[in-house]
Amino acid sequence: MKDGRKEVLVVDDDPDVLRSFMRLLEDCADVKIALGAEAALKVLASKHFDTVVVDFNMKGPHGGWLLRQVRDKYPEIERILLSGSSYSELSRWLDPGLVDRFLEKPLEGEELIEAVNEV
């Protein structure tokens, strides 16, 4: 946390979604974005983050795969998963304790802000 603001990495494979989430969160957090799981790992290696917000369905490795990497390499980072599918539909790809907070899409902007501030 820098100056009382969380350092947040948002990961999705849609540039428009990334831009909208960045605008939504920039008033309450310092936000960086990554286009996909592999890009996220590069960003994570270069900077400390308090929270990572990851979409499950992405081209390339899915969000569950990325969260596993984050948990193993950076266990102190809070992990938020977003998906248009329900948690139970995704459970076969998610280890117990892998996700700190799950948000189902579509979501209200306030839900994401609240999740980032609360986790």
Automatic annotation (TrEMBL):
<keyword id="KW-0597">Phosphoprotein</keyword>
<feature type="modified residue" description="4-aspartylphosphate">
    <location>
        <position position="55"/>
    </location>
</feature>
<dbReference type="InterPro" id="IPR001789">
    <property type="entry name" value="Sig_transdc_resp-reg_receiver"/>
</dbReference>
<protein>
    <submittedName>
        <fullName>Hydrogenase transcriptional regulatory protein hupR1</fullName>
    </submittedName>
</protein>
<dbReference type="InterPro" id="IPR050595">
    <property type="entry name" value="Bact_response_regulator"/>
</dbReference>
<dbReference type="Pfam" id="PF00072">
    <property type="entry name" value="Response_reg"/>
</dbReference>
<dbReference type="InterPro" id="IPR011006">
    <property type="entry name" value="CheY-like_superfamily"/>
</dbReference>
<feature type="domain" description="Response regulatory">
    <location>
        <begin position="7"/>
        <end position="119"/>
    </location>
</feature>
<dbReference type="GO" id="GO:0000160">
    <property type="term" value="P:phosphorelay signal transduction system"/>
</dbReference>
